């Protein structure tokens, strides 16, 4: 039997189930375009009153048989199901997009946020669990399920190799949604070779189903943390989802186990294979599960400061004028929030606001050790860049100064975050040696 998967560009033709018992099953086409998950629905005509689906694309059209738009549906359900010879696919987060037609026939397109491969329920708008493989997290934590013992003779030639793969216990990261991580492994025994793969998966798992965003908020937060640690925009290698009322069944209908179904989506950052192992500014051994819990709280309490930095990290053009502005916004917010949280607003002016230079000093005062020694010069450079960007009557800084100031701004915020999570000044100093932001930009003659 063919594998239940969505191959980019290859359509799947199957039967449509929308959860409405009054509508007949129709044939639909599902495909992954490479940028969207798209379901094409055939229509009798665009505005045919007898077609139960055509009204989904009749935005702004008035129908004489339903002037109040209360008797019929004028948009697709958020969750629909498509069945074909390979299996079921549940589409979650559906919305009507483009359509085309003539007087007699037409077609409408539905775009979905997520495709759950093998799902059989229309209740996947809420789920009991999500787990995602994060290769960067495996690289950072060094969490492993593999043990290799090598036996050599007196000439130091290998005589035997014994590999042991074990199901390691889950590591508890935080209480919300029972967030955990676990090392995983799989093997392939091909002719003449034996391959073992291991990774690390994040998992949220709860008894009462919750919305996807609730789960993915925690997965995304951990991904953001490891991305900040390496200053690289990492992604997810795979995503799976669980509903406990949609289990694995035997041919006779007996429940065999929970079913983790693969998810196809274009809404989450994807893992891009790397050629060089990433280096991290601060080590996992000093952060640990306690640091993850701290990060979840810090990310919420200091969101106005953290969010602009993450926007820069995932920007298509990191070293841009816009990024310099974003870094200034982050610093201004961070100084204000530190002062309000830790200093009782001691550095606020009469309007309960904080000026930019005092905000920078507040941040420096809260650091155990900054990433560079010229902090007084940095305050002036950061102020010139930020004010020059905000105010047209201020002089624009030299482009090289702007780039290096942006680099310094980002390092300051990352250092502050790392120290709040438990990283020591010594480990940060060591990590800085190989960090992507460590090297100063220089002019090319």
Short description:
It is built from nine helices and 18 strands.
Notes on the structure:
The chain is of the alpha+beta class. The chain has three domains: 106 residues; 140 residues, no CATH class; 149 residues, Four Helix Bundle (Hemerythrin (Met), subunit A) (Up-down Bundle). 30% of the residues lie in helices and 26% in strands. The chain is built from nine helices and 18 strands. The strands form three sheets. It has a 14-stranded antiparallel beta sheet with strand order 6-7-3-2-1-4-5-8-18-15-9-14-13-12. The protein has a two-stranded antiparallel sheet with strand order 10-11. Strands 16-17 form a two-stranded antiparallel sheet. Helix 2 crosses helix 3, helix 3 packs across helix 4 and helix 6 runs antiparallel to helix 7.
User: Radius of gyration, rounded?
Assistant: 27 Å
Structural class: alpha+beta
Strand order of the largest sheet: 6-7-3-2-1-4-5-8-18-15-9-14-13-12
- Please tell me the total number of domains: 3
Order of helices and strands: EEEEEEEEEHEEEEEHEEEEHHHHHHH
CATH class of the largest domain: Mainly Alpha
Helix content: 25-40%
- How would you characterize the largest beta sheet? 14 strands, antiparallel
Can you count the beta strands? Answer: 18
Shape: globular
Q: If helices are DSSP runs of H or I spanning 4 or more residues, what is the number of helices?
A: 9
């Amino acid at each position: 039997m063919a594998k239940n998967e969505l191959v980019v560009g290859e359509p799947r033709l199957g039967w449509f189930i929308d959860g409405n018992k009054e509508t007949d099953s129709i044939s639909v086409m599902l495909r992954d375009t490479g940028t969207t998950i798209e379901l094409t629905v055939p229509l009798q005509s665009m505005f045919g009153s007898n077609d139960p689906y055509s009204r989904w694309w009749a935005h702004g059209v008035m129908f004489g048989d339903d002037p109040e738009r209360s008797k019929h549906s004028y948009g697709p359900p958020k969750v629909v199901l498509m069945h074909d010879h390979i299996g079921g696919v549940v589409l979650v987060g559906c919305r009507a997009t483009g359509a085309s037609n003539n007087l007699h026939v037409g077609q409408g397109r539905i775009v979905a946020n997520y495709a759950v491969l093998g799902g059989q329920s229309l209740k996947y708008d809420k789920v009991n669990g999500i787990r995602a493989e994060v290769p960067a997290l495996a690289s950072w934590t060094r969490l492993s399920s593999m043990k290799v013992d090598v036996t050599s003779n007196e000439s130091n030639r290998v005589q035997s190799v014994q590999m042991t793969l074990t199901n390691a216990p889950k590591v508890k990261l935080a209480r919300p949604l029972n967030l955990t991580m676990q090392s995983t492994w799989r093997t392939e025994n091909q002719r003449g070779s034996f391959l073992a793969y291991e990774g690390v998966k994040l998992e949220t798992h709860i008894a009462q189903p919750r919305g996807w965003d609730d789960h993915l908020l925690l997965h995304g937060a951990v991904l953001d943390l490891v991305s900040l640690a390496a200053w690289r925009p990492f992604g997810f290698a795979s995503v799976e989802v669980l509903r406990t009322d949609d289990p694995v069944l035997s041919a006779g209908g007996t429940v065999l186990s929970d079913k983790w179904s693969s998810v196809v989506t274009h809404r989450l950052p994807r893992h891009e294979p790397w050629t060089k192992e990433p280096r991290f500014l601060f080590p996992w051994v000093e952060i640990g599960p306690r640091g993850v819990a701290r990060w979840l709280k810090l990310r919420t309490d200091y969101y106005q400061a953290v969010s602009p930095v993450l926007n820069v990290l995932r920007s298509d053009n990191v070293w841009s004028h816009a990024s310099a502005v974003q870094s200034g916004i982050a610093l201004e917010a961070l100084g204000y929030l530190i002062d309000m949280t830790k200093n009782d607003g001691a550095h606020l002016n009469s309007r309960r606001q904080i000026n930019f230079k005092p905000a920078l000093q507040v941040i420096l005062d809260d650091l155990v050790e900054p990433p560079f020694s010229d902090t007084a010069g940095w305050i002036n450079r950061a102020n010139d860049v930020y004010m020059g960007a905000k105010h047209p009557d201020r002089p624009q800084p030299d482009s090289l100064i702007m780039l290096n100031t942006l680099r310094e701004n980002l390092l300051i915020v990352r250092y502050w975050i790392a120290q709040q999570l438990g990283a020591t000044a010594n480990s940060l100093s060591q990590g800085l040696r190989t960090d992507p932001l460590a090297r100063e930009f220089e002019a090319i003659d």
